[in-house]
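Please check this today:
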Amino acid sequence: MSYNIFTTPKDSLLASLDLESFFQRLKEEFLFDINKSQSCAFIPHLTAAAVNELYDEMQEIATLRQNTPSLSSFASLLSSPSLNDGEIPSLLDDLARGRILDTQELNNLAKMQEMTFILLEELRDLSWVKALPPRHENFAREKKDIQGKFLSSFRLFVTPKGEIQYQQHPLLRPLYEKKINLEEEIKQKLSALLRTTFSSMNVNGNYDLFGDIYVIAIKSDSYNNKLGSILGHSDSGKTLYLQPHAIQDLSQRRLHLARDIEENIFKIMKGYSEFLSSKKNLLRDFFEMILKTDLLHGRLMFSQKMNFSRPSFHQDITQLEGLFHPLIENCTTNDFHLEAHHKSFVLSGPNTGGKTVFLKTIAFAHLLPHLGLFVNASKSILPFYEELYFISSDGQNLMESLSSFSGEVTTYLTILEETKKDPSNILLIIDEIFHSTSSNEASALALSLMEYFHKHYKHSHLMLSTHHELLKVQSNLEKEILSAHVGHHRETQLPTYKILYDGPGASMAISIFRHISKKLSAPHHLADRAQELLSPHHELLEQTLLEVSQEKIKLLELEEKIRQKERQLDLRAREFEGQKKIQKEQVTATLLKEFEHYRKKVEKILSEQNSSKKDLKEIREIKRQVDSQFTHKE
């Protein structure tokens, strides 16, 4: 059995990462059933270059949506009219085999072509649309051919909902009108019979259709063979469906006309099918374009709704900022940095502190690009792993009929065996490594596994969580291993869910046991006795780790307070600048108003008086006042 999630997505492996819940949310963003299924499968043989190309195509759609108001409801281009996408591939195969499609099937192909023409017009400037297959070089001619020989005439008498409008087609119109006239004549005769011959009989309502033939429903005890022919009866046999002799000839003529209409429709559909068969390769390209548009758009919309961001890829560096689990609302964010010399990551700390969730969060960050999605972080640089292994401690992926420890060992050895041919670009994540055996032996085995991994695997990383004391301490001494722990408040006994990168953390099992005992009113002396039984060395180590962790938490809280103060000062500075700008604008407006007042006064004097000395003196005085006012204001 392979444990690589990318190539063998077994249900048990998916469950260990809660991927089923994730996929259910993802499916909602796609319009077509084919894409709903395809979107929940890892893209095979994917490379970082291919993912970046996919991201570029998604970004083009994002830019187009932003710059084109008409595309604000982009999905409407794909959803109206509704397209039965699951039927399209088989219809194209049927066309290639020469089968004549019926009206509804051709209508589905017509909707696909109409949708394609709209999309090609709206998306014509996108690079991936310009790079369509060579047969699209003569697209204008092909489009004209399809519209002239299929779409235009087909849409004359078949609506997008598949309703046939017989009177709109020149071959069907005369036959349909004759049929309608005959039906009217039949209805009139039946109405007359109901008023006369059948008036005294036990009749069930008015006339009706039985097998597309007009009949009158009568009680069996009222039947007389002179009235007409029995075409059928109810399940109980108490009601007979009678075709009166008076309308039998009209009914036969009506059935002949209906048969003629169907034969003509078949001939029309045959012509359309043969024409579309000659365009089958082009139609396949159309369908692929529609699916690709929906796939790109759905991935983009999901990434945006989930607040994912586009990552950059680097072979040996991991820098994830604002990392969060995509299935947890209001999730605490963390940063995660692995330098080039780090080969492994060891996470420790108390139970229920968030170790498992954080390892799953890292796994998500590396598997999302393989689904064509952005990453669950505000900013990210990460390696592009070709293989991803996530081994959970819950036993869901351990082999049956083996003990927990034997099953765990078998899992790890199987992974080493299947990766030994090409031990590169691999991410192996183990939650609670060797959790089912003695701590010292488990630590020794884990350290041995890490040593082997560091030596034989290139551009790969091993990440694990543990409570084992020796493993925590020794990992903190190794340059190739990044050691961290999850935060936990000593006073409240609650996790902070923040990852602290200053070495290992205390497991706090006895402390948590004591806290739960108090909440449940259980005997508290059990925890006290356990504390007495601990070796002084272990107690000192746990106490030291705890104190270091608490100091780190206080430091982080202080840093957050400083950041809040900085944000408040920045906000006040912006408010001050805004007020200053408003005051400056108000002074400028006052000056301009006064200047306009004096300007009008000068113009009035010039227009009413000649250039006398008195006038000139008054003008100079006004000018002086204007100059004085502006000098004073400045």
Remarks:
- Residues 237 and 307 are 66 Å apart (CA to CA).
- The radius of gyration is 40 Å.
- The chain is about 55% helix and 10% strand.
- Residues 395-401 have pLDDT under 50 and may be disordered.
